[in-house]
Specification:
This protein has 2 helices and 4 strands; from the N terminus they run E-E-H-E-E-H. By secondary structure, the protein is of the alpha+beta class.
Length: about 70
């Protein structure tokens, strides 16, 4: 089972399950709509949606109480 990851949502699971085809289409659309930019939190170059300012890794840390 291949693992899918992106900087918008992190790890994508169940791509081979019953909802796999629709999940893969959504994943492809997210990738298509994403652009390369610098994460405002960690400074890494990431491929995220235009309206996002931080990557998924930083968003996860912030949700767990991490502060810069």
């Amino acid at each position: 089972m291949p693992i899918y990851y992106d900087d918008n949502y992190g790890v994508w699971e169940n791509m081979d399950g019953p909802d796999g085809p629709s999940n893969r289409e959504f994943y492809k659309q997210v990738q298509k709509d994403s652009v390369w930019k610098k994460c405002k939190s960690c400074g890494k170059k990431v491929k995220i949606k235009r309206e996002y300012a931080i990557c998924n890794s930083c968003a996860d840390k912030i949700e767990r109480g991490w502060q810069e």
